[in-house]
């Protein structure tokens, strides 16, 4: 029978391009559906049947947990699967089931009512304890309770790790942990209502090479699961129910892009060197050891930023020293002979991770709060544990350390004092480490940029974290789509700060890199080259494109461009100079 339904209306939404590429597929709208259940008093002769129904729900929950454990193990590794083991333990806890069955049998509650009553009582007890550890255990128990409830109601649970078909994920927001739990092989792309280009979900999407558009404001209101959707991560567009012509154009564009990236891959083993022989280092940013293969595959000559705080994601207990160590050793070995810069954990901001410490995850302005080095200096045991692991792994490859969110010389000195203490301790125990390990400072606050001459005297290198440097300089929250248009890497204040930092590092005889997203933005590559940047550390997928630009450039001309741009009187003349630049 012919389909007589009117064709669905095609809608184009504009958002913020977060990860390049084109994704085409059926939408999967990711949202937690409300569970609606009824409480009912049982007749005595219904009790047996109700117990069976409850046990069946528990058994189905167990199967579901085991399946997702397998997936997490495969994609994210052993340490993340441990979180799922906790859920299994709770489910198998005899008390949990016994209490519920008691309520069904003795108080004649239906299974839903008994489950809610038991969860409520556990929740109340744990809340009274007030401790961070118990708060997290309570969350675990509630999660398991929710799963059991879904099975009682016959409702499938929605998580990104158990997606079974290729889809475009549409969500109001995605946390870094939700992004990391996406299956790259099944995710055509994602589109979210909120978020900015340098939100960590966007950065992870680039690492996973998933096309993404964020900050669409109300994409979830326009899309239903099953709608055909195009995610254009290059232009920041999402097209819902595209016309045949539009769809055809995008299919062609996608093919061209795949062919182009194959061409670009041919540059893999060529140096990042300009036409007039100026050589820079092109390195990659990673968030997990699994990304090393892609980085090397795209020709990375090092890891310019390893965001180690992602080790803390998707789990409820901070990683042990051994877990840190194993992780760093793997990356160090795989990257040899190239160096790996390990950024000590930058927890806080949009990465509020479970640490078991109180007071930092309910701050009103987390980006201005207890974040990065501040948190490490406050909770020194956590910091020391990480430093010990890095030092121990340093004999396995070429590791360097870098501190995030430094705002003063005193913070750098205090961090170095702790590092020396850890070194002394290791030496006393006869544990080997690289005595010449370099220590660098991230320049991602205006204060650090303004004193970069002083910081450069006491650090081995500097690395510009422009994602934050821009946010703090122009006072624009990097994850807030409402002010995304003000988040401008070409703001003269930002360019002047960058120029100052590069100059300061060179004056002190130190090298300087950039590991913020700006380093992978092709529109500014020649300015950064001309300013004298020594290392560009970018998402692995951006390496070939940036290398092509660098290899086609003249260093001498790029220096002239940089000076001209710095002397612009306003944005209009700056942009004009940039767009008319040849060479
Ligand atoms: C930055 O701020 O530029 C940076 C590289 O660190 P992150 O994006 O992890 O804050
Ligand atoms: Mg930063």
Strand-helix topology:
Elements (H helix, E strand, L loop, with lengths): L10 E4 L1 E4 L2 E9 L16 H30 L1 H15 L1 H14 L3 H19 L2 H22 L13 E5 L4 H5 L6 E6 L7 H8 L4 E3 L4 H4 L5 E5 L4 E4 L3 H22 L15 E6 L5 H6 L5 E5 L13 H15 L3 E5 L29 H6 L1 H14 L4 E6 L5 H20 L10 E5 L2 H5 L1 H7 L2 E4 L1 H8 L18 H16 L3 E4 L10 H7 L3 E5 L3 H10 L2 H12 L4 H10 L3
Parallel strand pairs: 3-4, 4-5, 5-6, 9-10, 9-16, 10-11, 11-12, 12-13, 13-14, 14-15, 15-16
Antiparallel strand pairs: 1-8, 2-6, 3-7, 7-8
Helix pairs in contact: 1-2, 1-5, 2-5, 3-4, 4-5, 11-13, 13-14, 16-18, 19-21, 21-22
Bound molecules: phosphoenolpyruvate and magnesium ion.
Shape: globular
The named CATH superfamily of the largest domain: Phosphoenolpyruvate-binding domains
Largest sheet, strands/sense/barrel: 8 strands, mixed
CATH fold descriptor of the largest domain: TIM Barrel
- List cofactors, ions and other ligands: phosphoenolpyruvate, magnesium ion
What is the end-to-end distance? 61 Å
Total strand segments: 16
Helical percentage: 40-55%
Mean pLDDT, all residues = 89
CATH class membership of the largest domain: Alpha Beta
**Number of helices, counting only DSSP H or I runs of 4 residues or more:** 22
The unreliable regions are none
Structural class, judged by helices and strands? alpha/beta
Strand content: 5-15%
Question: Can you describe this structure?
Answer:
This protein is an alpha/beta fold and 583 residues long. The chain folds into three domains: 11-32 and 159-248, Glucose Oxidase, domain 1; 44-153, Orthogonal Bundle (Enzyme I, Chain A, domain 2); 267-580, TIM Barrel (Alpha-Beta Barrel). The chain has helices at residues 47-76, 78-92, 94-107, 111-129, 132-153, 176-180, 200-207, 219-222, 244-265, 292-297, 321-335, 373-378, 380-393, 409-428, 446-450, 452-458, 466-473, 492-507, 525-531, 543-552, 555-566, 571-580, and strands at 11-14, 16-19, 22-30, 167-171, 187-192, 212-214, 228-232, 237-240, 281-286, 303-307, 339-343, 398-403, 439-443, 461-464, 511-514, 535-539. The protein has an eight-stranded mixed beta sheet. An eight-stranded parallel beta barrel has the order 9-10-11-12-13-14-15-16, surrounded by seven helices. Strand 15, helix 19 and strand 16 (535-539) form a beta-alpha-beta unit. Helix 1 packs across helix 5 (132-153), helix 2 (78-92) packs across helix 5 (132-153) and helix 4 (111-129) packs antiparallel against helix 5 (132-153). It binds phosphoenolpyruvate and magnesium ion.
């Amino acid at each position: 029978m012919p389909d007589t339904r009117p064709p669905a209306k095609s809608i184009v939404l504009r958002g913020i391009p977060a990860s390049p590429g084109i994704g085409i597929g059926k939408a999967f709208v990711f949202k937690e559906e409300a569970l609606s259940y009824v409480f009912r008093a049982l007749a005595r002769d219904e009790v047996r049947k109700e117990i069976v129904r409850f046990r069946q729900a528990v058994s189905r929950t167990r199967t579901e947990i085991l399946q997702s454990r397998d997936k997490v193990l495969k994609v994210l590794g052993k340490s993340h699967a441990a979180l799922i083991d906790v859920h299994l333990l709770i489910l198998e806890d005899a008390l949990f089931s016994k209490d519920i069955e008691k309520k069904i049998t003795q108080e004649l509650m239906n299974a839903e009512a008994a489950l809610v009553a038991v969860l409520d009582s556990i929740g109340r007890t744990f809340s009274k304890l007030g401790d961070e550890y118990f708060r997290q255990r309570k969350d675990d128990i509630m999660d398991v309770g929710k799963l059991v409830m879904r099975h009682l109601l016959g409702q499938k649970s929605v998580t990104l790790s158990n997606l079974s078909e290729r889809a475009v994920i549409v969500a109001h927001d995605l946390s870094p942990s939700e992004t990391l739990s996406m299956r790259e092989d099944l995710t055509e792309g994602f589109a979210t209502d909120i978020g900015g280009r340098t939100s960590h979900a966007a950065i992870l999407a680039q690492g996973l090479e998933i096309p993404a558009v964020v900050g669409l404001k109300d994409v979830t209101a326009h899309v239903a699961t099953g709608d055909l959707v195009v995610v254009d991560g290059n232009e920041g567009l999402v097209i819902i129910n595209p016309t045949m012509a539009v769809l055809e154009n995008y299919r062609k564009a996608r093919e061209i892009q795949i062919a182009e990236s194959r061409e670009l891959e041919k540059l893999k083993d060529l140096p990042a060197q300009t036409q007039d022989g100026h050589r820079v280092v092109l390195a990659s940013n990673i968030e997990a050891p699994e990304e090393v293969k892609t980085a090397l595959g795209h020709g990375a000559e090092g890891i310019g930023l390893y965001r180690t705080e992602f080790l803390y994601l998707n789990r409820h207990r901070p990683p042990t020293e051994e877990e840190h160590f194993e992780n760093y050793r793997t990356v160090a070995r795989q990257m040899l002979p190239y160096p790996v810069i390990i950024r000590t954990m930058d927890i806080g901001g949009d990465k509020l991770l479970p640490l078991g410490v109180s007071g930092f995850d309910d701050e009103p302005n987390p980006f201005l709060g207890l974040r990065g080095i501040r948190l490490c200096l406050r909770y020194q045991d956590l910091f020391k544990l990480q430093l010990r692991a890095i030092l121990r792994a340093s004999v396995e490859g070429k590791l360097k350390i870098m501190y995030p969110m430094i705002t003063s010389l005193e913070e750098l000195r205090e961090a170095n004092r702790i590092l020396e203490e850890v070194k002394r301790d290791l030496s006393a125990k006869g544990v080997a480490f690289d005595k010449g390990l370099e220590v660098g400072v991230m320049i991602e606050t205006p204060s650090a940029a303004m004193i970069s001459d002083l910081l450069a005297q006491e650090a081995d290198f500097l690395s510009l974290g422009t994602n934050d440097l821009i946010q703090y300089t122009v006072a624009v929250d990097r994850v807030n789509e409402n002010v995304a248009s003000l988040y401008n890497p070409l703001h003269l204040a930002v360019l002047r700060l960058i120029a100052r930092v590069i100059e300061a590092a060179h004056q002190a005889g130190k090298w300087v890199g950039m590991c913020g997203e700006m380093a992978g933005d092709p529109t500014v590559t020649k300015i950064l080259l001309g300013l004298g940047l020594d290392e560009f550390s970018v998402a692995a997928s951006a390496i070939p494109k940036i290398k092509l630009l660098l290899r086609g450039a003249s260093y001498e001309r790029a220096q002239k461009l940089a000076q001209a741009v710095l002397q612009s009187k306003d944005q209009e003349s700056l942009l004009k100079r940039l767009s008319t630049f040849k060479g």
